[in-house]
Amino acid sequence: MFRRLFAFLLMFALAAGEIPARAGGVSSLGVVTQASGANLASASVSAGAAVFDGDFFTTSPNGLLRVRAGAAQLYLAGQSAVKLNSAPGGTIAQLTGGTLVFSSARAAAMDIEFAQAHIRPTSDQPTIAQISTVGARMLSISARSGSLEFSYKGETETIPEGASYKILLDPTDEEASSISASGTATPAFPDQGGPKRPKRRRRAFIIFWSAVAAAIFIPVVIKTLESPEKP
Fold first, then answer.
1. Which of 78, 155, 192, 221 is the 20 to 30 A CA-CA neighbour of 40?
2. Residue 13, SS3 per DSSP
3. pTM, to two decimals
């Protein structure tokens, strides 16, 4: 009887100590610097909260979240969701819905992942970009400052500074033909006909010009992310 009681008390003590151990024994990825209508898992989050590996954030339709992680910052717009994970030299932000804006002073500091595709700075220079999900297989990317590298299934393209593209992942033959024939979806690389690939192999993605402006780049966000005191 005593052994059972001791075992129960020991299990209770270990369970009660899980949260303090996480805060005191695990290094954080960064810190929340601004939050409004933002949640960590199912609990509301506020400025000053530490960010740990695997944390999943969501925002309400009118919410926002800004996180500082090493040499990078991430701004999550309303009705968006992102999971943050540690990576060598930086952070991986898995965008599952909505829009985010990130700034980075180093190429390895921030890597945005969407449906196994990756968007990262091409070099160690100040970079600001916006990524928005359009559907399960499509996203919109705007390179506000600095160029970006987009990679998916072994294929890579560079998004130059100032360009705005839409990218369709795993296009069907019908979708590829429709985009090539559409006047509102002109391929960004007409000479290449899409990303470089071996013949007889269906392209991993199609990248084409986007006529939609990067509306999320409101002056306050840009001023904050371009501040010389912050990456």
1. 221
2. helix
3. 0.76
